[in-house]
Amino acid sequence: MKTEIVVPGPLDAAQTLARFHLWGEDPCNRLVGGSLVRAVEVAGRWHGYELRWSGPVDGARLSVSVPGTRSARVLDAAVVEARHLYGLDLDIEGFYRETSADPVLSALIPRLRGLRPTLQPRPFEMLVGSVCAQQINLAFAFTVRARLVRRYGTPVKVGPHTVYGFPRASRLARAPVGELRRMQFTTRKAEYVVGLARRVATGELDLDALARNTNDEVIETLTAVRGFGRWTAEWFLARHLGRGDVCAAGDLGVRRAFEHFYGRGRELSEAAIRKRSLAWGRHQNVAVHYLLAGERLRLKAA
Which of 90, 169, 186, 273 could make an SS bond with 201 (beta carbons 3.0 to 4.6 A apart)? Predict the structure, then answer.
């Protein structure tokens, strides 16, 4: 089955999805030419699907195809994931209008037009990925995450390609800490992953319900889980829930971007970064992603 998605506003699909290959392999999200291959879980079963894009930034076209099924329910689930992945519900044009007076963003926007934050559709996958990324570089984080996915995830064929459904909480809840250690997780990180999985698998922690909570309530809930601090909670708000009024000011990459673009290379406090980002209101999330992308462009050109 196949359908097309209406794209509201500009979209640079390739640039938006670039994070799936910038730091290494992502077995759950395979970029193959002009498409992304992924799997969606419906009624306990994984189904592979493919996202294709075409056209210019201001006339982008997206299609979703799910081979091997005639289920409208599966196709609908894939479309919901695809819209979320591309951040199609974010008001990008409003962001462009309301930050036009910002000297930094107004210079970055023409170079990055159509870039949208890549959002993670599945909350458990988002949080486990955050554990992988704690206090290490992103290339190594991708490496250990890929090992975890290949060991505990579900392989799904999509044409000639194999993609993995992310490990279910019920399976990771039974994972031996020692086995995660052999994948180069630290003991604490292994315990954090297994501990989170157990709380989700038993229903003690309902991650889907967090979408109905305020930012402060989400932060309070997640920081009560062992191994999760404000850094993780704010990225969960930004990159899973897609909340606009969030700035992960404690993130090292965010801090370095702010220091370059707004601090003239001088060190900035977390409080100063939060104060600066408040000026962008409901567009903080998008603005931060543009600063991070701008910093990558600068370092690449250096």
Answer: 169
Residue 18 is assigned to a structural domain of this protein: yes
Q: Indicate whether 35 belongs to any domain.
A: yes
At 85 the three-state DSSP class reads helix
Q: Give residue 86's domain range.
A: 2-90
pLDDT per residue over 232-242, tens digit each?
999 999 999 99
Instruction: Supply the Cα-derived Rg of the chain in whole angstroms.
Output: 19
CATH number at 8 reads 3.30.310.20
Measure the CA–CA gap between 260 and 126, rounded to whole angstroms: 28
Provide DSSP, 228-261: --HHHHHHHHHHTS--SS---TT-HHHHHHHHHH
Average pLDDT of every residue of the chain: 95
Flag whether 228 is in a domain: no
Number of Cβ atoms within 10 Å of the Cβ of 77: 19
Residue 66 lies in a domain: yes
Residue tagged 């999330």 (tokens): 285
Helix (H) or strand (E) holding 32: strand 30-32
pTM above 0.70, yes or no: yes
Measured CA distances, 205 to 123, 146, 229, 293 (Å): 11, 25, 16, 33
Mind listing the pLDDT tens digit for each residue in 157-207?
998 999 999 999 999 999 999 999 999 999 999 999 999 999 999 999 999
Residues 164, 42: Cα–Cα separation, whole Å: 14
Nearest to 194 by CA among 224, 212, 215, 170: 170
- Residue 102's CB: how many other CB atoms inside 10 A? 17
